[in-house]
Amino acid sequence: MMRITDTVKHLIIINVILWLATMILLERGIDLVSLLALHFPENPNFRFWQPVTSMFMHSTESPAHILFNMISLWMFGSALEMRWGKIKFLSFYMITGVGAGLIHTLVNYYEFHTAQNLLLESGFSIAQINELFQSSYEGFYNILNSNASKIIDAQAVYNNGISYYVPALGASGALYGVLVAFGMMYPNTELMLLFLPIPIKAKYFIPGLLLLDFIGGVAGGFSLFGAGKIAHFAHLGGALFGFLLMWYFTKTQFNKNRWD
Domain range spanning residue 127? Predict the structure, then answer.
């Protein structure tokens, strides 16, 4: 059992405070998710700070979301902070988290315009499409449902179009970056899943986890991190930024220095 390091401890405290505040304030009519989670940039709820603040928000629908993320942050993040120092670890964590949000947003743009193009091919005008997406999520669903017979692949329009409405939240993107770094630094460390108690070396475990998320992102499916609609490409984006940062570290003097 590894001791918890200072930066990891503070990150966990911030996440837990915001998770509790989200539940408490919602009962008083204040929705922190609308304010702090990462929304699609064309959504009226989007704010410029959300790529950062969304990293510290978690679903209140299930405690498992924040519980699993914080346990993972403690287990893997503490090992990196002990090796790198506080500033280097925090810089890595923040960059991979923001990078995850960037990749997620780029994928959302592709999905959103895919939905728009299908609607155009189905005979909807630009004005009708804009009106559709300016409605609430319930309005969007009802309009699609009532016009399903006229729309080319209405299910695909729905699956891609909800990216406009559903915000992203959680530390999972940054954690995937942390996992990649851990796997590159400690490739032979044996890890186990709670529901599959078989030790697997990190150099096999983490690529396997990324493969599951890739399959989930392309075909739909589950993820070991998260709750509700899973932002698979945010996970993969965090992993990508984590890999690129590790590659950069190994090519420069940053690989040898602690940043305290």
Answer: 108-164
